[in-house]
Amino acid sequence: MTFETLGWQGLVILVIFGLSLLIATYCTYAERVIAAFMQDRVGPDRAGPYGLAQPLADAVKMFTKEEFFPGGASKALFTFGPCLAMTTALMSSAVIPFGNAVQFGSTVVHLQGIEINVGMLYIFGVVSLGVYGVMIGGWASNNKFSLLGAIRAASQNISYELAMGLALIAVLMISGTLSLREITFQQASDAPFVWRDIFNWNIMKQPLGFIIFLVCAFAETNRTPFDLPECETELVGGYHTEYSSMKLGLYLFSEYINIFVVSAVMSVLYFGGFNFPFQYEFRDWLASSRGLELVTAQNIITVLGAVGLFAKIFAFIFFFMWVRWTLPRFRYDQLMRLGWTILIPLAIFNILLTGSLITFGIIK
Questions:
Q1: Over the stretch 56-110, which tens digit does the pLDDT of each residue have?
Q2: How many CB atoms lie within 10 A of CB 57?
Q3: pLDDT tens sequence across 177-198
Q4: Contact call for residues 261 and 279 (beta carbons, < 8 A)
Q5: Is residue 302 part of a domain?
Q6: Which of 76, 179, 216, 266 is the most exposed place for a label (fewest CB within 10 A)?
Q7: Burial group, residue 192, by CB count within 10 angstroms (0-12, 13-18, 19+)
Q8: Predicted local confidence at residue 323, as pLDDT
Q9: H helix intervals, the chain
Q10: Which parts pass through the membrane (predicted)?
């Protein structure tokens, strides 16, 4: 890899980092707008046109609020907790392929931070570290409610990561790789009509696995109806009860970044990633009918694929917010029962079913 290519990849990493922060920032605005729409009321409309500057006003508020350390709290760990949660959230987006490669002359740039052949394992490892940020923050606050919220978060993550991992195994049985880029390429199709393109996506081969993964994604991101770690009616504010200023902002931002990342992962694993119907036919049409070079036509397809992937991601983010304002919160015993007695047995059944279908050649 040349220094020029390394420079371009460094720029891609910075863009992914910036996009993650920007999307997390405006997810707070989208949450308020969707909540207002669902509840038939006016949302944010004071800061800027249509309230578009509201996230900036919130950021200024977070930065300028008074720093607060509870009595008896461990100051170093109290600060380290939200930093760890934010860092692991940002690290998890590094291996997601947001598009195919673009070529400028002899330089090829992949729209992905880093490509490793164990990308999915990397995401699981980093996400597993994120719960330590919650645990450390809850324990260091020297508050019983915060500690209870942190313990809930840890037990919830352990319970639902098992079912999520088992759901992923069925996808790996079909794809034979842990590389997210390879999984995306395997869902591409040069079939002459649209339905064959969509039938090649893993959602058609793994509908049960996708449902399990989706439910576990809600639990992993602590979103309603699985937001027990920060249950206001029982725990005041949960693990971040004692937090204020930008330390609270880091916890809130990390949650939205996790929503963005898990939406991207589901789009890549089950909905074809940056692939879209008729992409190869459209590329050949651009090259033949419009007289474009094949490299230029492929670059256009890459850009359109990246736009399509972000459309899928935003659709999932909307779904996360829609569910929040639609479904009530589970009780904690219901949450644990769902994870251990329903999702894990279903995920094991899905693995056995997938193995049988592969053995008999029904799916490939």
A1: 888 888 888 888 788 888 888 988 989 999 999 888 888 999 988 888 877 888 8
A2: 14
A3: 999 999 999 888 655 444 556 7
A4: no
A5: yes
A6: 76
A7: exposed
A8: 92
A9: 3-38, 54-64, 75-91, 119-140, 144-175, 180-186, 194-199, 202-205, 207-220, 232-235, 245-270, 279-288, 294-324, 332-337, 344-359
A10: 6-29, 77-99, 119-140, 160-178, 198-219, 256-280, 300-323, 335-363
Strand partners, 103: 108
Burial of 2 (0-12, 13-18, 19+ CB in 10 A): exposed
- Report DSSP state, residue 48: S
* Alpha-carbon dihedral sign for residues 158, 163, 166, 172: negative
Identify the band that residue 312 occupies on the pLDDT scale cut at 50, 70 and 90: very high
DSSP assignment, residue 102? E
Collect all residues with Cβ–Cβ distance below 8 Å to 280 and sequence separation of at least 6: 190
Q: What is the amino acid identity at position 120?
A: M
* Domain membership flag for residue 283: yes
| Contact predicate 192/281, CB 8 Å | yes
Give the integer Cα–Cα distance in Å for 6 and 12.
10
Q: pLDDT-derived band of residue 203, with 50, 70 and 90 as boundaries?
A: very high
Alpha-carbon distance values, 108 to 2, 7, 333 (Å): 10, 11, 52
**Would 172 be classed as within a structural domain?**
yes
**Parallel/antiparallel/unpaired status of strands 101-104 and 107-110:** antiparallel
Confidence (pTM): 0.92
Residue 104: its H or E element: strand 101-104
Question: pLDDT averaged over the chain?
Answer: 86
Q: Which domain holds residue 174?
A: 63-98+113-359
Strand partners, 231: none
